[in-house]
Design a protein that fits this description.
single chain, 251 residues, alpha/beta, Rossmann fold, 7-stranded mixed β-sheet, two-stranded antiparallel sheet, 42% helix
């Protein structure tokens, strides 16, 4: 059973409303829509994101195709879901998002509190997130890529990401009134067509490096971008291990 199969396993979504919190590229939205369609369920997905380029929205709609009938794409802030009433949602799905909230832990807790507000009693929360990349011979390039980005952001007095472990997330959710935790770890796997992703990462790093105020450092870091890209091109691109954490809002 893969990650997404485990995430939706045992969920009766017929007649339910699902909040997909932070749509991103729409991968999770598509998975949930396919699950609903496959099981012939009458369900609705409200997929929210605060700032998506129109080309992303067009791509998501194109990939959904006929499954768009299950999905409503909304521009909204997961920290303040004014578009949703109290106890109006049956299931909240939050996929590959909390790593970018956790550098400011109160933001992470604010999102969790808002999930708790919109969920019905006994409503379900599903979180998919990453473990920190490990520094091994097989994953050195990915480890360098991830930590290099963190360093560049730090040099600009900003924060890239921080990966909370499931036991940390569970403790925070328990304080807010969630219970019945289930967690499963899924091993990382290689990505075949990764060059476009790595090229985009390199461009992002170079743009961020250009904002630094130290000329000699900028030159050295720009060279290191190319070194990291070369290493990944040689060894391949490995996704880090991920976990799925499922719980319910206590009634």
């Amino acid at each position: 059973m893969d990650l997404y199969q485990w995430a939706v396993a045992g969920l009766d979504l017929d007649g339910k409303t699902i909040l997909d919190a932070a749509t991103g590229a729409g991968e999770a939205t598509l998975v949930w829509a396919e699950y609903i369609h496959k099981h012939n369920m009458d369900a609705r997905i409200i997929s929210v994101d605060i700032d998506q380029p129109q080309e992303w929205i067009d791509k998501i709609r194109g990939e959904l195709g006929d499954l768009q009938k299950y999905v409503e794409l909304i521009q909204a802030d997961i920290f303040q879901l004014d578009c949703l009433g109290d106890e109006s949602i049956d299931v909240v799905n939050c996929d590959s998002t909390i790593v970018f909230l956790n550098p400011r832990p109160l933001k992470l807790l604010t999102a969790f509190k808002e999930f708790h507000r919109v969920l019905k009693p006994e409503g379900k929360l599903v979180i998919v997130s990453e473990f920190p990349p490990e520094n091994t011979p097989q994953t050195m390039g990915q480890w360098q890529r991830w930590n290099f980005a963190k360093a560049i952001w730090a040099l600009n007095a900003e924060t890239w990401s921080a990966e909370p472990r499931p036991e940390e997330v569970e403790s925070a959710l328990e304080l807010l009134g969630f219970a019945d935790f289930q967690c499963q770890r899924f091993p990382g796997y290689p990505i075949r067509d990764f060059q476009a992703c790595i090229d985009e990462w390199g461009e992002m790093m170079l743009e961020k490096i250009s904002e630094l105020v130290w000329p000699e450092l900028k030159k050295a870091l720009s060279q290191q971008v190319q070194a990291v890209k070369a290493r990944i091109s040689e060894e391949g691109f490995m996704l880090p291990d991920q976990y799925v954490l499922k719980c319910i809002k206590k009634g």
